[in-house]
Amino acid sequence: MPVGDLTDTGTKGEHVMTEAMADHHFDTLLPAYERWGQPCSETFSRAALDGAQLSPGAAVLDVCGGMGALAVPAAERGHRVRAIDVSAGMVRRAGERLEPYPDGSAEVMDALDLRFGDDEFDAAFSVFGVVYFGPATARALAEMVRVVRPGGLISIVNWAVPTGAPFFLPVGRAIDRMNDPEVGRFVPPLTEYLERAELERALSEAGCVDPRSETVEGVFALPNAETFLDELDAIFQVLPQYRAVVTRDRFRDLVAKEVRRVESGPLPPAQANVAYARVPSR
Q1: Between the CA of residue 49 and those of 43, 104, 154, 176, 275, what are the distances in Å?
Q2: Residue 86: CB atoms within 10 Å
Q3: What distance in Å separates the CA atoms of residue 76 and residue 66, rounded to the nearest whole number?
Q4: Per-residue pLDDT at 82 exceeds 70
Q5: Which of 30, 99, 248, 275 allows an S-S link to 213, with CB 3.0 to 4.6 Å?
Q6: pTM for the structure as a whole
Q7: Residues 220/272, Cβ–Cβ less than 8 Å
């Protein structure tokens, strides 16, 4: 999951992730994120590790690592892992989860200013992280490239659809069914790096070579209709449209109906794109 906050840019429905505000937002949603967001992040993190095919005992950096969705599986595989995030709460939880692994650690650090030397790592990953930094994504990727040795791997992961995590879908449908001209049609939270070609291009522009990518699917449980909004409210608060309607009974009824609609059939798979590239010889 990203480590930034969604803030209005002045145009209805347009948002941008800003890392400077991440500690304020993500520290407030730890329980909701761990129960519902962490499984999504960890599924796609494991897929990224599978595709990376790292050598045993590789030195791995997890950028915007949250609660350790990638760091913990990497440590389980015997890699030496450092996870960084600007959210102190997320880092504390990642550190707890990494305690069984002497070669794993987590610390508070800005992805735009990594406090590591050049060529320290064999691979750097960012799962649902630096792709949300807007224009600063390029700088974050440049930092990842700097700290990875020549021939090492860079991998970034983003959702393949604008709605992102599957639990945003019932909210979006309910906002559309409100048909409120002041709120407007639902504006999905994601706009950039949704296509595999975009992710590969970003890695190439950061100076990497041999980009490749794949699409990965996962099926994730949702809270039931009666508890859906209570369970996920802290996460949905990033959406201005949600904040505008969440206290309305009609909206809450519509969300419950949309959740039951999803529950009535097999859960649709969520899709993410995973991109990889190599750091060239310098």
Answers
A1: 10, 16, 11, 37, 11
A2: 22
A3: 17
A4: yes
A5: 275
A6: 0.90
A7: no
Q: What is the pLDDT of residue 28?
A: 79
CA distance 88 to 169: 29
CA distance 182 to 162: 22
| Alpha-carbon distance values, 228 to 189, 223, 234, 252, 258 (Å) | 19, 5, 11, 10, 10
Rounded to whole angstroms, how far apart are CA atoms 215 and 132? 19
- pLDDT tens-place string over residues 199-248: 999 999 999 999 999 999 999 999 999 999 999 999 999 899 999 999 99
Average pLDDT over residues 79-91: 96
Nearest to 277 by CA among 144, 159, 170, 180: 144
For residues 44 and 218, is the Cβ–Cβ distance under 8 A? yes
Judge whether residue 186 has pLDDT over 70.
Answer: yes
- Cα Rg of the chain, angstroms: 19
Domain coordinates of the chain in residue numbers? Answer: 5-163+189-220+267-278
Going by CATH, does the domain composed of 5-163+189-220+267-278 fall within 2.160.20.10? Answer: no
- Determine which of 11-20, 51-60, 102-111, 204-213 has the lowest per-residue pLDDT on average: 11-20
Please name the residue that has the structure tokens 């999905």. 188
- Helices marked H in 81-237: 88-98, 137-147, 168-178, 196-205, 228-236
- Measured from the Cβ of residue 34, the count of other Cβ atoms closer than 10 Å reads 15
Judge residue 179's burial from the number of C-beta atoms within 10 Å of its C-beta, 0-12 exposed, 13-18 middle, 19 or more buried: exposed
